[in-house]
Automatic annotation (TrEMBL):
Gene3D superfamilies: 3.30.390.30, FAD/NAD(P)-binding domain (3.50.50.60)
Gene name tied to this protein: lpdA
GO (cellular component) term, any one: cytoplasm
Keywords: Cytoplasm, FAD, Flavoprotein, NAD, Nucleotide-binding, Oxidoreductase, Redox-active center
Protein residues bound to NAD(+): G192, A193, G194, V195, I196, G197, L198, E199, E215, G283
Pfam families, sorted: Pyr_redox_2, Pyr_redox_dim
UniProt name for this protein: Dihydrolipoyl dehydrogenase
Domain (FAD/NAD(P)-binding): residue spans on this chain: 7-339
GO molecular function, one term: flavin adenine dinucleotide binding
Positions annotated to bind FAD: K60, G124, T155, G156, S157, D324, M330, L331, A332, H333
Active site feature: H456
Catalysed transformations (reactions): N(6)-[(R)-dihydrolipoyl]-L-lysyl-[protein] + NAD(+) = N(6)-[(R)-lipoyl]-L-lysyl-[protein] + NADH + H(+)
Compartments, as annotated in UniProt: Cytoplasm
């Protein structure tokens, strides 16, 4: 094998975990390659994985566009802005979304060149062990055989199919198809009231679809703080989302241009709904298809994830795995942190990932964001705690924005006052949560946040006020 095809580190997968791992490895002085098979419409590379191509980035682009449309149609008049003849140009909206995706794709190509990461466009497959490392074959637009001392698996995840309802991405949609619907459906069904279901349901409701969300669990957003979930449910229902809980799906029957869902509601009554389009968002499964891990002996766990230890090492020395393909939350930023940590561990450093301070966000309107423990978790664990809340309706900046929905909630240890969890439903919660993440990473108390000066008027004052409320001394509510 020629020397130019030998590397210190090879990363399989160019999503958030993979491309960041490759860049960090290169920064640390390793000769690094990254393999990724995503293609754009012209067959060229489309780095960024699910997140950039059919996940985080395009969904946020459509969420932003659809929110503008809804504001123009309903909220602008209150501000003294009259919009006559409002119409939707869905083609332009989708075109803008694709432009945002391309900018991110191209940005990663630039970063690879800047950091001297060698990119191979195709599918990476383990071919076996080589002298001092492993051989990985690349097939697709690029065909090659390369070797490395260390290989990082960052192949991500795929949408989970509902048995009997295979994705065709035209009528029965995964997150991929939900981003490319070419006309607003009159009736849209969503199976699964999770992050993807709520975000995509929100997009199409704002654009004019009647949206019904069918959730199998008896509680809404059961993984988040119960008080926040109840507030979010109330707000989404008021907006027009028809959210049905405790549903049992009996069958999904696809027609020529529609789909019928037969189900039992929470009371057991038989129901049937016909939708123009159906989004299925019931979770994701790790992507190990065609990876060839059996040739090198990498083990999977009982759920099909690549089995790793706390430092993302597989059972085979020199092979690592990060992101959605391993245990832990399926979040792009979690994958990035693991990618950086693994690159640093390969270099003999001590990479840092704290699962207790990984923030979660649902980019609906209002947004939902949280970090740390929920109130129900603390009760179950028998932890004595204090809680403080502050509503955005009492925040001056929120009033000026015209969005006073939701609240900030702090949970702190009853004895030490250490912050144990922060939960937000409200405007730009995704940005506000970062203060809580920093505070918890440094084991701050609610008193620390309460004593820090926050700009006025700002939404972040609601964070300060919720921290004050832990000690029952909120100043503005």
């Amino acid at each position: 094998m020629s020397t130019e095809k030998q590397f210190d580190v090879v990363v399989i997968g160019g999503g958030p975990g993979g491309y960041v791992a490759a860049i960090r490895a290169a920064q640390l002085g390793f000769k690094t390659a990254c393999i990724d098979e995503w293609q754009n419409a012209k067959g060229g590379p489309a780095l960024g994985g699910t997140c950039t191509n059919v996940g985080c980035i395009p969904s946020k682009a459509l969420l932003q566009s659809s929110e503008h449309f809804e504001h123009a149609g309903h909220a602008f008049a209150e501000h003294g802005i009259d919009v006559a003849g409002l119409s939707l140009n869905l083609g332009q909206m989708l075109k803008r979304k694709e432009g945002v995706v391309k900018a991110n794709n191209d940005g990663i190509v630039y970063l690879f060149k800047k950091n001297k990461v060698t990119f191979f466009h195709g599918r990476g497959t383990f071919a076996g062990k080589a002298e001092g490392g492993f051989t990985v074959n690349v097939s697709g637009p690029t065909t090659d055989s390369i070797s490395a001392k260390n290989v990082i698996i960052a192949t991500g995840s795929n949408a989970r199919e509902l048995p009997g309802a295979a994705f065709d991405e035209k009528v029965i949609l995964s997150n991929t198809g939900a981003l490319t619907v070419d006309a607003v459906p009159a009736k849209l069904g969503v199976i699964g009231a999770g992050v993807i279901g709520l975000e995509m349901g929100s997009v199409w409701r704002r654009l004019g679809a009647k949206v019904t969300v069918l959730e199998g669990l008896p509680t809404f957003l059961g993984a988040i703080d119960e008080q926040i979930a109840k507030e979010a449910h109330k707000l989404f229902t008021k907006q027009g989302l028809d959210i049905q809980l405790g549903v049992k799906i009996n069958s999904v029957t696809k027609g020529d241009n529609n789909v019928t869902v037969d189900y039992a509601d929470a009371a057991g009554a038989a129901k049937s709904e016909t939708f123009d389009r159906l989004i299925i968002s019931i979770g994701r499964v790790p992507n190990t298809n065609g990876l060839g891990i059996e040739t090198v002996g990498v083990q999977l766990d009982e759920r099909g994830f690549v089995a790793v230890d706390d430092e993302c090492r597989t059972n085979v020395p020199g092979i690592w795995a990060v992101g959605d393909v391993v245990r832990g939350p399926m979040l792009a930023h979690k994958a990035e942190e693991e990618g950086v940590a693994v690159a640093e561990r390969i270099a003999g450093q001590h990479g840092h990932v704290n699962f207790n301070t990984i923030p979660w966000v649902i980019y609906t309107s209002p947004e939902i964001a949280w970090v740390g423990k929920t109130e129900q978790q603390l009760k179950k664990e028998g932890v004595a705690y204090k809680a403080g809340t502050f509503p955005f309706m009492a925040n001056g900046r929120a009033r000026a924005l015209g969005d006073t929905s939701g609240m900030v909630k702090f949970l702190a240890d009853a004895t030490t006052d250490e912050i144990l969890g922060v939960h937000i439903v409200g405007p730009v919660a995704s940005e506000l949560i970062s203060e809580a993440v920093v505070a918890m990473e440094f084991r701050a108390s609610s008193e620390d946040i309460a004593r820090i000066c926050h700009a006025h008027p700002s939404l972040s004052e609601a964070t300060k006020e919720a921290a004050l409320a832990v000690d029952k001394r909120s100043l503005n509510f």
